[in-house]
Specification:
The chain has helices at about 5-60, 65-75, 90-95, 100-105, 105-120. By secondary structure, it is an all-alpha fold.
C-alpha cells in the first residue's frame, strides 16, 4: 500500500496527532481550573456552615434576657435609664509609642515592622 508510506499521509497523521494533543491539553487545563474552583467553593461552604452554627448558637442564647441585654449593649451601645455610658475611641485604648521606644527602634526595624504589617505576618 503506497498510501500509508507517502509523505502526505505522515503529515496528515502528524497534524491530527498535534490537534488531539492540543485538545487534550485544553481539557486538562479546564479540569484543573474547575477543580480549583470547586475546592474554593467547598472551603467557602465550610466556613459559611461554621458561621451559620455560631449565629444559630447566638440566636438561641438571645432567649435569655441577660444575654440579650449583653448583646444589645455590645452591638448598639444601649444603656438603662439613668445610667451613663462612655464610648472611647480606639486611639485611646491603644497605647501610643513613647519617645524612648521610638528612638530605640532603628530605621530597618521600623521598615521591617511596616512590611510585616502590610503582609499580615
Amino acid at each position: 500500500m503506497k498510501v500509508f508510506s507517502s509523505k502526505w499521509f505522515f503529515c496528515l497523521l502528524a497534524v491530527i496527532l498535534l490537534l488531539m494533543a492540543w485538545l487534550l491539553y485544553k481539557q486538562l487545563i479546564a479540569k484543573n481550573y474547575l477543580q480549583t474552583k470547586l475546592n474554593n467553593l467547598e472551603a467557602k461552604v465550610s466556613s459559611l456552615d461554621k458561621e451559620n452554627k455560631l449565629l444559630e448558637q447566638e440566636a438561641e442564647g438571645l432567649d435569655d434576657p441577660d444575654r440579650l441585654e449583653e448583646a444589645s449593649r455590645r452591638l448598639y451601645v444601649l444603656k438603662k435609664p439613668g445610667e451613663q455610658a462612655m464610648v472611647m475611641p480606639e486611639e485611646l485604648l491603644v497605647p501610643s509609642p513613647t519617645p524612648e521606644t521610638v528612638s530605640e527602634q532603628s530605621f530597618f526595624g521600623a521598615f521591617w515592622q511596616k512590611i510585616k504589617t502590610f503582609f499580615s505576618f
